[in-house]
Amino acid sequence: MELRTLGQSDVRVSPVIFGAWAIGGWMWGGTEESDAIAAIHASLDNGVNTIDTAAVYGMGYSEELVAKALRGRRRDRVVIATKCGMRWDDPKNEGSDPWPQKDNQGRDVVIRKNSRPYSIAYECEQSLKRLQTDYIDLYQIHWADVSTPVEESIRTMVKLQEQGKVRAIGVSNYPADWLAKAIKVAPIASDQPPYSLINRGIEKDVLPFCRENDIAVIVYSPLERGLLAGAVPPERQFPAGDHRATHKFFTVESRK
Q1: Of 3.40.1280.10, 1.10.1040.10, 2.60.40.10, 3.20.20.100, which CATH number belongs to 4-222?
Q2: Model's pTM, two decimal places?
């Protein structure tokens, strides 16, 4: 595949990226480790060079699976993108938008958006350990955290970059006004919003802002979690813990 450069960074990604949310199991009704690893291998063998994961995907499990899948492969041929800022394990219980959830073992957890400097620095170290690497190609703040000034968060990302732990700084789910604040501190390589034929909200302001400011856009759920791939017929039943069972796009009426 012809690689594309993310913004003003030196990180080059394939136009198709392996999204590793589902392999973490959380919110998808579980996962099968061997299938997940085989899927990553198949994508890499067919020209994909980038894997996008996050600490919160399975509360670290997705990152661990990515590390297992990459054993024996040349690290410099794979772009690893991961995310911080969604804490389920912060003893301080700081952050915004508390979100009660169940982890993969069925235990109660409360996830909070936390992009405070100490939290980002801690999460980076944990992700490096789980991914079994000494650098992250693209490190992204997962969601806008209203409890933390965006400038503080981005300055912390810059420090990680200066330390050689991060090659490029990205964000995810950032609206245009947050992006405008972020780029005053440092170049932002990419924003990762949801986008599909039936979810086109970013066309109003996020896409134009990114085009004008040389910020790459890495969309997630382009096939709307399988719906647009024709893989979810009306009769399909979702297992316990699969978020699609209650998602507005996956009602039986929507799938007919």
Answers
A1: 3.20.20.100
A2: 0.95
